[in-house]
Amino acid sequence: MGGAVPWEIVVAGLFAVVAGMNDGGALLATGLKLPSVRPLTGILTLVVLVALVPLVTHQVALTFVTRLATFDSPDGGPAMTVAVVAALAVVTVLSSRGWPTSLTLAIVGGLTGAGLGWGLPVSPGWVALVLLVGVASPFVGGSAAWLAVRLLVGVTRNGGLPHWHVAAFAVQSVAYAANDGQKMLALFMIALGFSDAPLTYTALVAGLFAVGALYGMPKAGRVLSYGIIASRPLHGVAAEVGAGLTVITCAAIGTPVSMTQAIAGGLIGAGIAQSSGRVRWYAAARIVLAWLVTLPVTLVVAALAALVGRELTG
Q: Is the pTM of this model over 0.85?
């Protein structure tokens, strides 16, 4: 579909900037209490990996484009626009009311709903798989972080936690670029009509992500933790390990997973490993409730908007 209209490209670009603001801060927040990865170094690392990792694998991007629903068709661009607008609207409304949520859940719901509303082929099997993996990922990330705390307590008795932080951040960053970060690439694939991952476009996505991440960096310290736990540096490193391993495993089967969900689960698991009293359960429950609301609400909003759009465009 070579005749993509400009607004589809603009919408895809806007989403990449917003993803940088949302995800960049979340990826940096867990390790801010350690000086081993400076914020600018972390952002540069993420930008390089977002540009390069899809050259090796972009299976998650293809899941967004062709597996949840078939967007590689003439109607894919308008439906994608509806999906992005619905996702951003729902996330904005929830966040403004103090209910921080996942942009990835929103775009999964938006693409699925827009596909249904616009009459595109939607795969119930893939939708169910993505939902199942999304529900499981915070628990898996939390369990991995719980184990990581036990390991790190033993191996860092005489120091060395900053070195583990560097390694954990690297794993988490590769996982993001191989999985969650590819939602940005997927929207450009729909808007511009390509199915591979040329460096020109992955670099464009990485650049827009960088703009958002730099803009949102001053808020990085409070992007993710939301008061989930009384955090120590050990918990942040363990959460990075748990989230990174969880998300990169899901990338291997092409299933998109929200990194922020996995990190939140990792923080809770790391807190429980030392004392359940460290976890602020009320704050955690609010975040989980926001997750539960985000996908179905976005799906319904996008489906209704797509139905209207389809009728208006004939």
A: yes
